[in-house]
Design brief:
Blueprint (H helix, E strand, L loop, with lengths): L28 E7 L8 E5 L2 E8 L2 E5 L3 H6 L16 E4 L2 E6 L27 E6 L3 H9 L4 H4 L1 H4 L6 E8 L3 E12 L2 H5 L7 E11 L4 E9 L6 E9 L2 E7 L1
Antiparallel strand pairs: 1-6, 2-3, 3-4, 5-6, 7-13, 8-9, 9-10, 10-11, 11-12, 12-13
Length: 252
């Protein structure tokens, strides 16, 4: 249901429509803004909380700037504190992604990059493992959907199976920077995709999913494991493009 403003509403009285969480802005973190394979000599543009990032390769090396390189060469830009007045953001290429720093550039440290054990650091994965999904929702809402580990039983039942099982437990742990949820399911109906692709002939299977979320950057590291069956590790980073928009450059 949507709220319709009345004729008595004044500018000081805010009327909100459908429920949308406030898009929090936590700084001093690394964001994976692009798959490495998407970078070339031709600049592309990304947005983090309305802050522009122009990305391109120069002599094969990745660069990230807050303005188009043409404007930087023309020296017609008003540079911000996000680049310390240099125009260029701190950048790291790892796990098949271009990671850029959002915040005070003096605080940038590669030790703050998330550790993703199932992705090769040099990004040497086939292209079919990567794709981009765009959501008409703030990144916080997109992450909240993913953190509900039971949502797949309803939204993706035709792929990973329904919610029928012998037992189903969800645990949560957190720190000031991360949230980790673990779902353990016993004797779950075998997921259709396990029959189609994995050749599983059993009637039931056990399932364990771990989701680790870095709160500052909305980076979601997911590791579902099916027995009998196979693992489906994946990285889903939700880039906060705007109040009602997020971009997810996925690696499965």
């Amino acid at each position: 249901m949507h709220t319709v403003p009345s004729s008595t509403d004044t500018p000081s009285r805010k009327v909100r429509g459908d429920w949308t969480p406030i898009n929090y802005d936590l700084r001093d973190t690394w964001f994976p803004v692009s798959h490495s394979r998407d970078l070339s000599a031709q600049p592309i543009r990304r947005i983090i909380h309305a802050q522009p990032y122009y990305l391109w390769r120069e002599n094969g090396q990745p660069r990230a700037a807050e303005f188009h390189p043409y404007r930087l060469r023309e020296n017609t830009c008003v540079l911000t504190a996000f680049t310390g007045g240099s125009g260029f953001y701190p950048l790291v290429e790892r796990y098949g992604y271009i990671w850029v720093w959002y915040g005070n550039p003096d605080a940038a440290d590669t030790l703050l990059l998330p550790h993703i054990p199932f992705l090769p650091q040099d990004g040497s994965l086939p292209g079919y493992t990567q794709r981009t999904v765009r959501f008409d929702a703030t990144s916080a809402l997109s992450v909240e959907n993913l953190i509900d580990l039971t949502h797949a039983d309803f939204l993706h039942a035709n792929t990973i199976g329904d919610g029928i099982s012998e037992s189903d437990e969800v645990e949560v742990q957190w720190t000031s920077e991360t949230v980790t949820r673990t779902r353990t399911v016993a004797q779950k109906s075998v997921a259709p995709i396990m029959r189609w692709v994995g050749g599983v002939r059993a009637k039931y299977q056990d399932f364990r999913a771990v989701l680790h979320i870095h709160l500052r950057s909305n980076v979601c590291i997911s590791y579902p494991r099916f027995r009998p069956g196979y693992d489906v590790p994946n990285l889903q980073p939700f880039l906060p493009v705007g109040k009602h928009r997020s971009r997810c450059d996925v690696t499965f």
